[in-house]
Write a structure and sequence with these properties.
alpha/beta, TIM Barrel, five-stranded mixed sheet, three-stranded antiparallel sheet, globular, disordered C terminus
Length: 286
């Protein structure tokens, strides 16, 4: 089996308010550039994935489009969440959950979660702020995005160093919202990927053997993305949307918690794999 080339951070106009390219055009551009698949990671939305799944006549042969999401937490920035096939949680489409809650729900239903651009712009990223605020979550996440073309060289370098120190799998993606930046990043996967179950297994078993691409911003250190006025404006915008959506989010969360009390958790994929040590499973879920 040959290795597969994926973009594991993709935004479409169907699912992200700042996306400019349809999921069908996105897939075609990636395939023309030699990619084998993509993970849709729209902000708090599965809409593009649903549209793709329903439009069988528009799908590309030998190209895999998978359903993921980039969730906007209220306290620790953006996180990429990948759920097993058949798991469709509407609470993930309502921004503003705390990271602790997001992790517990993701793991209960057998999914995996990792920070997008962990050293990126302030208010968007896990590793910004005091170490005490984020260190406790590093033992609970499943992978780290270590290459993102929209981030600075130093940010990606720090993300890779973090993944190595915690022995966590790496992923890479373009984080593209426009046509001219699609395919700027890649993840090479030494595993056959046909659905999200395959992708979860591949990531957890560290079958993503290489991540990389072109660097969109050449400066060594960020300037505008961490400027106080810009960051504060985005933070205020995020809080406003979080407050507006609170009633519906609370309702959906109560539904989920009631279900979780009545049922046993779905086993994470790598609990089944005998090659993964018991110590690793306990560290991340124990």
């Amino acid at each position: 089996m040959s290795q597969m080339k994926f973009d594991l951070h993709c935004h479409t106009k169907e699912g992200s308010p700042d996306g400019k390219v349809s999921v069908f055009e996105y897939a075609k551009i990636l395939k023309d550039k030699g990619f084998d698949g993509m993970l849709i990671t729209d902000h708090d939305s599965y809409r593009a994935a649903r549209i793709w799944q329903k439009s069988k006549d528009k799908q590309l042969p030998n190209f895999c489009v998978l359903k993921g999401i980039e969730y906007d937490t209220v306290d620790h920035g953006h996180f990429i969440v990948i759920m097993p096939e058949g798991v469709d949680l509407k609470v993930f489409e309502i921004r503003g959950m705390r990271l602790k809650t997001l992790i517990s729900i993701t793991h209960f239903f057998g999914g995996i979660i990792g920070p997008a651009h962990p050293y990126g712009a302030k208010f968007l990223s896990l590793m910004k702020g005091k170490e005490s605020k984020y260190k406790k979550y590093l033992s609970q996440i499943d992978f780290i995005e270590t290459f993102n073309t929209s981030e600075y060289i130093s940010d990606n370098e720090q993300a890779l160093k973090l993944a190595k120190s915690w022995q966590l799998p790496c992923t890479g993606g373009s984080d593209s919202h426009k046509a001219n930046t699609i395919g700027e990043a890649y993840s090479i996967i030494d595993f056959e990927i046909n659905n999200t179950n395959d992708l979860i297994e591949a990531i957890l078993n560290k079958k993503v053997v290489k991540v990389g691409g072109s660097q969109r911003y050449k400066r060594k250190h960020p300037i505008l993305t961490n400027a106080f006025p810009l960051g504060f404006l985005f933070y205020s915008y995020n809080i406003l949307l979080t407050v507006i959506s609170t009633p519906l989010r609370v309702f959906r969360r109560i539904e989920i918690f009631r279900y979780m009390k009545r049922h046993q958790p779905r086993k994470p994929m790598y609990w089944i794999n005998e090659n993964i040590s018991k110590q690793t499973s306990e560290r991340r879920y124990g």
